[in-house]
Amino acid sequence: MTDPKTISIAGGALAVDDGPPTESLALVIAWCADDARRVGEVAPFPDRGGPSTLGRGAGDGEPRVRFFRQRPGRLHPTEPLAGLPLSRRQLTVTPQGGKLLVAREGRCELVVNGAATERCALVANDTLLLRGQLLLLCVRRVASIPKNMYFLDDRFGAFGDADPLGILGESPAIWRMREQIAFAANAGRHVLLHGESGTGKEVAARAIHALSTRARAPFIARNAATLPAGLIDAELFGNAKNYPNPGMNERGGLIGQADGGTLFLDEIAELPVEQQAHLLRVLDADGEHQRLGEPHSRRSDFVLVGATNRDVGALKHDLAARLTLRLELPELAARREDIPLFVRHLLLLAAKKSPQIGERFLHEAADGRLEPRVDPALVEELLVRSYDTHVRELDALLWRAMAGSPGEVVLLTHDLRKESLGREREPNGEKIRTAIKDAGSVEKAARALGLKSRYALYRLMKKHGIASDEE
Prior knowledge:
This protein has 14 helices and 23 strands. By secondary structure, the chain is of the alpha+beta class. It folds into three domains: 1-149, Tumour Suppressor Smad4 (Sandwich), CATH 2.60.200; 172-329, P-loop containing nucleotide triphosphate hydrolases (Rossmann fold, 3-Layer(aba) Sandwich), CATH 3.40.50.300; 429-470. The chain has a six-stranded antiparallel β-sheet. It has a five-stranded parallel β-sheet with strand order 16-17-20-15-21. It starts with 5 loop residues before the first strand and ends in an 8-residue tail after the last helix.
């Protein structure tokens, strides 16, 4: 096994240690004609590295692009791209000035961001296709993911697959989230999950429960926005029989049902302020609460996990203060390299739901696994889209693609292609800086970039490390 402390990468050396992580550009495999299991592997390019060659050659003394399976505290080198019909010297790649300078050397056509070319300068979010063989996504990411302290190795699962908790992804952002989830589970404190619709808040809540000492106790989940007006307190705390109205059944209440376990309230910010205030005592007083119509108090030993896609300010401030831990769930734009893994995962789930879909779009790979047949043009389109509802929206797009594909390959269909016409891909850091400078304000720059609001631009500025003084 290669020494995990020093691994040769692209003619340089990458140190994997416990120091602060540094970022550089990298190429991530998003689609591979020869082996779908290589999706998610990464080739890092240290900023001060020299030129290296991507191709099927190996062992000739020339610096070569190497791909790795990157996980917390470790890098596993994988086999060279010998199985693909590439030239021995297909591309040369040179990191320079915050970009990757790429030049075509071999016979396979080079397509960058949808346009054929001979040479280019890649920045984060650019796509590179070696026609019919390999699709790569350029990202900026840490050279080494810090070793986990709470999310332990026995929870990892196979590379590229959902872990035993149902969390999918190999990006640094999702590994940070796993570690935060495990910390929250160990802490036993009340938690607030914040993230846009479709980022997996219930999956995270269930993972917190499963990793905690409460795992064998109930996990009670309810969307707070669906609690009937006028009965919210009865639903939360329970009520005695015939109270407040004759004929009403006795309710144990969500808080009582969660005794010993976890209560997950999705859309918690949709609770009226009055009912938010009613939660304060039960969260303060070791679960002490009173069912409506009962003279005595009860206790429920539970952890509350609340979730919202609204600004935290929408919560009553003293309720927010009692949700001690805050977890920000990353949107797809912060983990684009995970999108191809979701494509595979969601198509396999679709095939489980419908054997006919499986028979049509799946094939048996060399290792005996079933893998979906996917057009790289579809993967590329999904990589560069802007998402409103994230994984939920991605799943819907894949169903539309399957419905419109005439053969055995899930294609970028005409209607999806038509949607993408005239819509630019998410702007990179260089375009954002230029737009802000030219427009003179973030709001005007957002309009010039075709974004939905200035808040969308603020998120991109944070992602690309654009300081506030550049606003």
